[in-house]
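Section 5.1 Outputs to date
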Amino acid sequence: MATETVDMDGVTMAQDILLDTVDAKYTEDEYKRVLKKIDRILLPLMWLCYGTQQADKTAVSTQATFGMIKDVGLHVVVNADDVF
């Protein structure tokens, strides 16, 4: 497998130009505003994803207890080595 070398100085400079953060100065109020915005948007989304995943996990385990694995013909994978 061939490896590729990346010039990180060029990457950092490209990020600064793209994000317009070359000489950016932010105040404490701006940092707080951004954090509040992240909290308002990302945290509810994370809770929704976690809740959906937990509900799915609970539903499948309950159904497995009542014979769904045998009825549907599912293969139970204990660890990833069983798949390959």
